[in-house]
Amino acid sequence: GMIWSECKEIWEEGPREYVVHLWNLLDFGMLSIFVASFTARFMAFLKASEAQLYVDQHVQDDDLNNVTLPPEVAYFTYARNKWLPSDPQIISEGLYAIAVVLSFSRIAYILPANESFGPLQISLGRTVKDIFKFMVIFIMVFLAFMIGMFNLYSYYLGAKYNPAFTTVEESFKTLFWSIFGLSEVISVVLKYDHKFIENIGYVLYGVYNVTMVVVLLNMLIAMINNSYQEIE
């Protein structure tokens, strides 16, 4: 019903007018993810049904442990910890979780009608452009330190007390969670006596935290606070 409603809205308003409103994009994204989730689950059901049909037709023994099954059929006897990362059931569950979050955010559509919550909702919507402008600087600084720290520690894989900065992924995770105070200083410590590299790591990590946490985050908070005061 909701999909049909969105299709009617696109037909009546036209695609260009439809995408102008952010709520329409939220609805479209939410429904698309729900449909993708259900489709992935249906694909998993079909594959499992094919495996069950093979067992019913070709296996006489009740205990499948005593039977040699084709790999694509034996796969459905495995526990979840042996499933492939690309298993449709796993993908379906991940997409469904995202869609549920988006569906609850749809409640914000009625918040502007409330005297207390309205200013919060409106100020958030009107400061989106400012936040995006701010994010350009934010991402630029983040990428600079992420690549710099990776270049510094990529040669020390296995020679650190934790894998921070030894790969691009670990560098990203360490710097991202340090914004919220969830990374440790030991991330820059080496097991070797290479104090020059270690000291550079201390300096770069310290400058990053001062720049991102003390300066940029507080600047963003000040911008949002100023916009909220004006709207209120």
Automatic annotation (TrEMBL):
User: What biological-process terms (Gene Ontology) are attached?
Assistant: regulation of cytosolic calcium ion concentration; single fertilization
Q: Which UniProt keywords apply?
A: Ion channel, Ion transport, Membrane, Transmembrane, Transmembrane helix, Transport
The yes or no answer to whether the keyword Transport is present is yes
Q: Where in the cell is it found?
A: Membrane
Q: Which residues form the Ion transport domain?
A: 3-231
Q: Under the cellular component aspect of Gene Ontology, which terms does the record hold?
A: cation channel complex; plasma membrane
One molecular function GO term is: inositol 1,4,5 trisphosphate binding
> What broad class describes the main subcellular location of this protein?
membrane
Pfam families with a match to the protein in the record:
Ion_trans
- Full protein name: TRPC7 protein
* Gene from which the chain derives: Trpc7
